[in-house]
Predict the 3D structure of the following.
Amino acid sequence: MDLYREKILEHFEHPNNYGKLDNPDVTIHDFNPLCGDEIYVDLEIEKNKLKNIRFRGLGCALMRASASLVTEKVKGMTKEKIIALDKEDIEKLLEISPGPTRTKCILLPLEAIKKGLKVK
Amino acid sequence: MINIKRDFPILQTKVGDHPLVWLDSASTSQKPRQVLETMDNYYQEYNANIHRSVYSLSEKATLAYEATRKEVAKFIGANPSEIVFTRGATEAINLVVFGFAKNYLKKGDAILLTEMEHHANLVPWQVLAREKGLKLKFIPLGKEGKLDLSHLDKLLAGVKLLSFVYISNVLGTINPVEKIVRVAKKKKIIVCLDGAQAVGHRPVDVEKLGVDFLAFSGHKMLGPTGTGVLWAKREHFEKMRPLIYGGDMIEEVRLETSTFQEPPAKFEAGTPNIAGIVGLGEAIKYLRKIKVEKIVSHDEELTKYALGELGKIKDLTIYGPPFAKATGGQARAGVISFNLKSIHPHDVAQVLGEEGICVRSGHHCAMPLHRKLGIEGSVRASFYLYNTKEDIDKLVEGIKKVKWIFTGKKS
């Protein structure tokens, strides 16, 4: 039960920023072939900052909760600051420290966002 | 029913407060203390390289290693000279692909596989097909998780080699090997069988099955990790080339050329996993003492029970055949993959894991099969001789807890 604290389940059931952007600057599709977690991220970038973001896709509770919290956090941040975020930041956001397999799940959203920022 | 949990030290351990419930034997089996003691004894009393020295330790080690070869041969109805030790079924299949098929097949030849194969019996063939310009064909997955054999004869046209799985590691489907081999042999097709989920779980006799190659893993039948076997019909060894060369597989070495040993030594270069193979010998002895026929009945009872209990849970989908064939007899083994509606397999396995219940989640090294089933992944519970009905009861309780956490529903 430890990993599935209320916070995680809350964000799993009612995630922030779920959906699509009308005119995204970048759309990234990323997935974890090991387990079937899949995410689409729409990014709207203005000057050097992330103006808006949406995500969607099939995935486990940890991945969705992470996407919900990460997308909320990175809104308005500069590209550099976002690219500097790492595993520890995600674990702090989620308040959990999963094993290596689930770590891939919680890092997927951030990795997708970083890929998108490198494109534009 | 078989009741031997006490022989398995790891099954006495706990995960937090919960006793360990091992339901992932399809990925690797747990080991009885008899196997562990044998390996320990090897290292403590006669660890020495084999086939090399004259001192008594080496002789003892060599005898123990070769004794396992005889045990394995007897276990599958073969000759010891036809047994090659590998690290597992994957390596064994690679030896068939790149050691035999690479020389045997010509450009334009077709290989027939199935849609339910484990990556080990799929990816190497893909690579060979690309390298040599071969055609890959697939027996399709039919209804109820069984192979659709209705067009087998047609599919076999132009096929020189057929490779398929005995028991699916996802669906538990027990394929009608002898029936398929009979059809293939009419066209003189070489047949390779992936026996990873079958050997040690039901009686396997290579002569009865009629196949040309059999690959299986020692570690899925109570043996140590890093052990596996390739059995091949004697005549195929002539056309087989080792994948690894070096010491122990040679006869005479000069600077420019060398001659090689006869099989099976020819295919066992370097110092092998001696402790592992010695342990595997003990595993087979253990299985023979319990009697494989009893393991089959045990598996039947557990599978019937599990399918019944899981079937009662709402919003749970089980993949694969029903327990029995229409004509009677067991259609599926104790490998059960399933999904809970709207709950990702990872999350299911996570919660179960925290209760000490070990199941696998993901695609179980069978991505094309999952794609064909239209799912991202699944949860898999698999049984072996040390599992009991209580283990299944715990699984069911655990699944109910998962449902409660994620949906608030109590059943």
Q: What stands out?
A: Chain B is about 40% helix and 15% strand. Chain B touches chain A at residues 344-347, 350-351, 354, 361-363, 367, 370, 375-377, 405-406 (CB under 8 Å). The CA atoms of residues 28 and 220 of chain B lie 5 Å apart.
